[in-house]
Write a structure and sequence with these properties.
The protein is of the alpha/beta class.
């Protein structure tokens, strides 16, 4: 069984990935990065992901598409996803995020301390969950 302890950071812009990495690296969790929705899906399917921080707006496969796909598969359904958006949070996006099972929705620019708290909480909750395998 693969231990789910990695945090997956997904954004199609390198500067945003850098900011996310800098924000959560003090937690000490192993990090994986992806620069597209397709790459994110491949990464979660390999296993070992405890929490995903996922940009909403990406070309070809959006963050909402990734989340929808993850919710359809037993092996990825329980991985908490924090959606990140640079477009501002509107009521429709909030409804879509909730409907698709997002654990949280945050706006860019990301508050690094708030992201750390959210990732740590979700990582610990997943670690303590009896169904956290995968």
């Amino acid at each position: 069984m693969i231990v789910a302890d990695k945090v997956l950071l997904v954004d199609d812009h390198e500067d945003n990935l850098f900011a996310m990495r800098e924000a959560v690296s003090p937690l000490g969790y192993p990090l994986e990065v992806a620069t597209s929705g397709d790459e994110a899906l491949k990464t979660v399917l390999r296993g070992g992901i405890a929490v995903t921080v996922l940009d909403v707006v990406m070309p070809v496969v959006s963050g909402l598409d990734v989340l929808l796909y993850m919710q359809r598969l037993e092996q990825t359904r329980r991985i908490p996803v924090i959606l990140v958006t640079g477009l501002g949070i509107d009521p429709q996006l909030s409804r879509d995020a909730m409907r698709l099972g997002a654990a949280d929705l945050v706006a860019k620019p990301i508050d690094p301390w708030a992201l750390c708290i959210k990732v740590r909480y979700l990582h610990e909750a997943r670690r303590l969950s009896p169904t956290a395998a995968g």
